Amino acid sequence: MPNLVVDIGNTALKAAWADGVTLGKTYRYQGERMIDFILSLTVKDRPDTLVVASVREISGQDEIRLGAVCSTLVLVDPRNRNVYTSRDIPSYLSPDRFASIMAVRYLFKGRGCTVFDFGTTLTIDFIDASGKYSGGNISPGCRTRFKSLNRYSRTLPLLDTPDSVEELGTSLVSSVESGVISGIIFELQGYFAVNPENIVVFTGGDAIYFAKRVKNAIFVVCNLVLMGLAIVADEYVE
């Protein structure tokens, strides 16, 4: 049977069936019963390998439940980072960043890459041409910036990502919108300049939004994390 790969992030769960490194149908779930949702995906088909990457620690009880529905269970969470060691990836990285590195090593073998993941946080990771992880940074994501401005000021409204942005704000709303979006674009341009020869990869919920707003050549891989987890799953099958 195919493998099942699951990414539990800060706000949502994403999952996909995978045949080797090829992803099939994908699922998204945003709720409290994440383990139950994963188990519901296995009612009709039992995966050979189930890979669950989670920013939250998977309890021992949930580990037993997950292990009962697959032939091999691989957990990548705060207390299970053993998969990092043999792949020469620092153990302090979050599971989604670990998976992204696995994916770009496969997709762009022999090329240096700069990977941007646009989610609750904006993460930036550098991989050199040999596949070695060089380092990376974390800053607030787009919606996190909007929420922070509203939360920590008395006068600024809570806004969401705008469809269009003025170059310079001409009202309170457009000033916040331009400040956040332009600030991120300037940040991206600074990182592009660090290793201009690198392939640039965007992933995450706002990847397409920002890819349309920069002039550089960009590879947008929306399911980069799930692809990386599929690579891990396939290694266990082999």
Tag the structure with descriptive keywords.
five-stranded mixed beta sheet; single chain; 238 residues; 2 domains; Nucleotidyltransferase, domain 5; 10 strands; alpha/beta
What's the SSE blueprint?
Layout: E1 3-8, E2 13-19, E3 22-29, H1 34-41, E4 49-54, H2 60-67, E5 72-76, H3 82-85, H4 95-107, E6 113-118, E7 121-127, E8 133-140, H5 142-151, H6 172-194, E9 199-204, H7 207-211, E10 219-220, H8 224-237
Helix pairs in contact: 4-8, 5-6
Give structural notes.
This protein has 238 residues and is an alpha/beta fold. The protein folds into 2 domains: 3-93, 2-Layer Sandwich (Nucleotidyltransferase, domain 5), CATH 3.30.420.40; 107-220, ATPase, nucleotide binding domain (Nucleotidyltransferase, domain 5), CATH 3.30.420. It has 8 helices and 10 strands. The strands form 2 sheets. The protein has a 5-stranded mixed sheet with strand order 3-2-1-4-5, sandwiched between helices. A 5-stranded mixed sheet has the order 8-7-6-9-10. A hairpin with a 5-residue loop joins strand 7 and strand 8 (133-140). The longest helix is centred in the C-terminal third of the chain and has 23 residues, at 172-194. The chain starts with a strand and ends with a helix.
Tell me the strand percentage band: 25-35%
Q: Name the poorly predicted regions.
A: none
For the termini, the CA-CA separation is 14 Å
What value does the average pLDDT take? Answer: 94
Briefly note the structural class of the backbone: alpha/beta
CATH superfamily of the largest domain: ATPase, nucleotide binding domain
> What count of helical segments does DSSP give?
8
Major sheet details: 5 strands, mixed
Give me the strand/helix succession.
EEEHEHEHHEEEHHEHEH
Query: Taking strands numbered 1, 2, ... along the chain, how are they ordered across the largest sheet?
Result: 3-2-1-4-5
Gyration radius from CA atoms, angstroms:
19 Å
Helix content: 25-40%
| E-strand count | 10
Q: What is the count of structural domains?
A: 2
Shape from CA axes?
globular
Kindly provide the name of the CATH class of the largest domain: Alpha Beta
CATH topology of the largest domain: Nucleotidyltransferase, domain 5
Q: Which second-level CATH architecture of the largest domain applies?
A: 2-Layer Sandwich
